[in-house]
Amino acid sequence: MKILFYDTKKYDKESFDKVLPKYEDIEIEYVDSDISVRNAVYAKGFEAVCGFVSSDFSAKVIDVLADNGVKIILLRCAGFNNVDIKRAKERGVLVLRVPGYSPEAVAEHAMALALASNRHIHKGYIKVRENNFSLVGLTGLNFFKKTAGIIGTGKIGAAMCRICKGFGMRVIAYDIYQNPDLDFVEYVDLDTLLAESDLISLHCPLTDDSYHMINSESINKMKDNVVLVNTSRGALIDTEDLIKGIRQHKFHSVGLDVYEEETANVFENREDDIMETSITSRLLSFPNVIVTSHQAFLTEEALEAISYTTLENAQSYIEGHIIKQNLVLPRE
């Protein structure tokens, strides 16, 4: 099987090349650019294409892929809201993803954002580099004996719950489905979580129901001086309402690995570009906000797991037994 990898970064190539020798029936060609309607035609002659979380697998792109003989879209990520699943099924293109690779990687980054923003590590680092050893503006909060509110308790949310418990926090959670493995977690309704949490961390998928779940109304229900972290999907938060809340001093700090309108920025070096949207610059203008570049997944362990699962998905197709739990199907 020949697979065309779009949007390939140095770390992608290194991790996949490391495990590729175990898969004699698979050949990979890497390209730097991400997939689009214009360059999807380059997949002619390939049975599969591989993309990442921000790759454009819209109906038009899928049509071009299908017209050129592509049978599989391999996602080297868990999220698939960037894929028109219905159109893929109509065109007979299978979509396979990596539902879990290293939930601890994302959860640890979420806690890193919580700690760094809370204790103003980003400000302290810059001040010391400038020979400024003043502590003014660096006061943080203890997490010990505070309440952590975890929204979404799948594998990543569960890992975050365990981390917060290790910090000596009371852990409450909101999820439609309660995780039976988290016997130390108190499940509550969303309003209770918003009202009682000192730290709120988002770990839920982006759906019609969860879109902009953090908005002016939900922010008003939060405690004053709350710490908010998002490592899931940017559109879980209404950014305009978040900015309004920051300006009203609602938050002690905010840590974002994802944010709305991040697509053009994700994984790209744009240091010489003029910003096309003011969202990033406005978020970065606040001293109590840290924004990272969708890097929560980026550990050596996670990259290795992603590589293996992606190639296992391809191998399963070759051998005629698709890994069903990795197959993405449209909702009925």
TrEMBL record:
<dbReference type="InterPro" id="IPR006139">
    <property type="entry name" value="D-isomer_2_OHA_DH_cat_dom"/>
</dbReference>
<keyword id="KW-0520">NAD</keyword>
<feature type="domain" description="D-isomer specific 2-hydroxyacid dehydrogenase NAD-binding">
    <location>
        <begin position="111"/>
        <end position="296"/>
    </location>
</feature>
<protein>
    <submittedName>
        <fullName>4-phosphoerythronate dehydrogenase</fullName>
        <ecNumber>1.1.1.290</ecNumber>
    </submittedName>
</protein>
<dbReference type="InterPro" id="IPR058205">
    <property type="entry name" value="D-LDH-like"/>
</dbReference>
<dbReference type="GO" id="GO:0008720">
    <property type="term" value="F:D-lactate dehydrogenase (NAD+) activity"/>
</dbReference>
<dbReference type="Pfam" id="PF00389">
    <property type="entry name" value="2-Hacid_dh"/>
</dbReference>
<dbReference type="GO" id="GO:0033711">
    <property type="term" value="F:4-phosphoerythronate dehydrogenase activity"/>
</dbReference>
<dbReference type="InterPro" id="IPR029752">
    <property type="entry name" value="D-isomer_DH_CS1"/>
</dbReference>
<dbReference type="InterPro" id="IPR036291">
    <property type="entry name" value="NAD(P)-bd_dom_sf"/>
</dbReference>
<dbReference type="GO" id="GO:0051287">
    <property type="term" value="F:NAD binding"/>
</dbReference>
<dbReference type="Pfam" id="PF02826">
    <property type="entry name" value="2-Hacid_dh_C"/>
</dbReference>
<feature type="domain" description="D-isomer specific 2-hydroxyacid dehydrogenase catalytic">
    <location>
        <begin position="3"/>
        <end position="324"/>
    </location>
</feature>
<keyword id="KW-0560">Oxidoreductase</keyword>
<dbReference type="InterPro" id="IPR029753">
    <property type="entry name" value="D-isomer_DH_CS"/>
</dbReference>
<comment type="similarity">
    <text>Belongs to the D-isomer specific 2-hydroxyacid dehydrogenase family.</text>
</comment>
<dbReference type="InterPro" id="IPR006140">
    <property type="entry name" value="D-isomer_DH_NAD-bd"/>
</dbReference>
